Amino acid sequence: MKSKINFYLIEYAINSILRQKSKNGFIVIIFATLVFLLTSIFFITNAIKYELNTTVNSLPQITLQNIKAGKSYEIDTNIVDNLLTISGVVDATPRVWGYYYFENAKVNFTIVGIDQYEQQYKKSLQTIVNSSDMDTIDSSNSMLIGEGVKKILDKNYYLKYFNFIKPNGEFKQLTIAGIFKSDIQLESNDMIIISKENAREVLNIADTKATDIIVKVANETEVPTIKTKIQTLYPNLKIITKDDLKLSYANIFDYKSGVFLALFIICLFTFFMIIYDKSSGLTSQEKKEIGILKALGWKIDDVLKEKFYEGFILSFISYILGVTVALVFVYLFQAPLLRDIFIGYNDLKPEFALPFIFDIQSLFLVFFLSVPVYIASTIIPSWRISTLEADEVMR
Amino acid sequence: MYRKSFYLVNIFYFIVILFFGVLFLLHYLHAPSKESIRIKNDFIKISTLPDLALSSESSYIRHRSLTDIFSIYPNDGTLREYDITSFTYKNSSLTANIPSKVINEK
Q1: Would the pLDDT of A208 be above 90?
Q2: 40-69 in chain B: CB under 8 A from chain A
Q3: Which residues of chain A neighbour B53 with C-beta distances below 8 Å?
Q4: What is the mean pLDDT of chain A?
Q5: Of A22, A290, A335, A351, which sits 20 to 30 A from A202 (CA to CA)?
């Protein structure tokens, strides 16, 4: 069976590309850079989205906050009993957490109080904490900290303990009992986990108050109904469900990607200007070339095939190069500069490794946005010229 | 096959193999393992807090989703422009029942 690929035409297409080395080299560089930029941003967004989405199902189903005059205030813990009377609610737990501003380093730590050392926590703590001595975790005046917090404390010579300054000016000394594993740095970098009693002391939250209350519902499908019931009972509460959090994630990433894409659109616009310019006409030399080919007996079909090979060779090589460089840049070098768009300007920047997610959808999106467009812009003007008579073209 | 076509085919092979080589390398080095996902979920169950340790544009914190980045007065009673790009973006009224804090709205 005869091969359908005509190597004579491919050879001609290669020669045609090589005849204009500098022009085509420039096209490859620009094309690959555009593909690189676009895929890089998709890779970063997808990696961070993945990180959030893998953990979102472990979050509380409903969170209640006390809103007064448009601001969030501490919530009374005695409403827990009323919440438990709502059918469908399995558990309601007051949560004590907040931010501690460390003046020396000008950073905010996130302090979370847990019902420390209850049996259910103890087992999980052992899996997520690096600690040479697990017994120190049992001591009531100890704390577990993220790697980012550890670095900041080390810089400020707090190697074994940290002195929290309480709102009344007194010190509260807590020993560093363990550091969270680097696997969870993205989640735990700025986190300090201490006992609920210590958290109340450091954050100055009374025993009858809590930062917010989390509610556990037996049947996931009942969450909207229970939300409505709670809203009727306590109209001042802000009720955040897990779905709201998912929506919020989608929002923030669409927004961040959007800001970047707004910048990128300028590059894209330039690309399409070049494409438009290319498709609106050929140079006299290119026209003459097609005319000669037709005079030599080439059919329209052959001219179009040759132009297709030319466009495909350039765009496909550029695309694969752009994507490969983006993969190396994002996942091996952790996307310097570009990553900053997403991680903000907090001083406690985590040095996390972006998880590698092979997102075939984004690759297809970029492919169809670039390669066929370029090939079309090569073929269409050639088709216009090749439909004319050879002598007319060459004249 | 002619000489230049032969080279071109080899170049194609090379870049495609390079591409898949990079994919395999990254999968080996950076793909999240089941163990790491389990550890992350264990941590989230203990801390019960959402979000990653990344600050949003509101300079103060993560966990903005608990207060909603678009809420009025998230910090204090003064209405300030917290977010440097808020002039380019306004939250949809469909996604949150809290009014947008954008003050330049006519």
Answers
A1: yes
A2: 40-57, 59-69
A3: 110, 146, 148, 185-191, 348, 350
A4: 83
A5: A351
DSSP readout, A94-151?
A: EEEEEEEEETTTTEEEEEEEE-TT-HHHHHHHHHHEE-S-HHHHHSTTEEEE-HHHHH
Q: Contact A39/A326 with Cβ under 8 angstroms?
A: yes
Look at A181 and A154; give whichever has higher pLDDT: A154
- Burial of B43-74, coded b for 16+ CB within 10 Å and e otherwise, reads bbbbbbbbbbbbbbbbeebbbbbbbbbbbeeb
Q: What are the angstrom distances between the C-alpha of A183 and each of A134, A233, B34, B83? A: 19, 42, 12, 31
Q: Which two structure tokens, joined as six digits, stand for A84?
A: 């438990």
A55·B40 Cβ contact <8 A: yes
Question: Is the pLDDT assigned to residue A92 strictly greater than 70?
Answer: yes
Assess whether pLDDT exceeds 50 at residue B56: no
* C-alpha dihedral, A278 to A281 to A282 to A288, nearest 10°: 170
Cβ distance of B55 and A343 shorter than 8 Å: yes
Q: Are A331 and A359 in contact (CB under 8 A)?
A: no
Contact B5 A7 (CB under 8 A): yes
Closest-CA residue to A379 (of A314, A308, A309):
A308
Please give the pLDDT value at position A162.
93
Backbone CA torsion sign across B79, B85, B90, B94: negative
- Confidence at A178, pLDDT banded by 50, 70, 90: confident
- At B100 the pLDDT is 42
User: What is the per-residue pLDDT for A282?
Assistant: 72
pLDDT in tens, A94-125: 989 888 888 887 777 888 888 765 555 666 67
Buried b (16+ CB within 10 A) or exposed e, A53-69: ebbbebbbbbbbbbbee
The three-state secondary structure class of A72 is strand
Q: Which of A9, A7, A11, A50 is nearest to A331 (CA)?
A: A50
The arithmetic mean of pLDDT across residues A317-336, rounded, is 90
For chain B, the straight-line distance linking the first and the last C-alpha, in angstroms and rounded, comes to 68
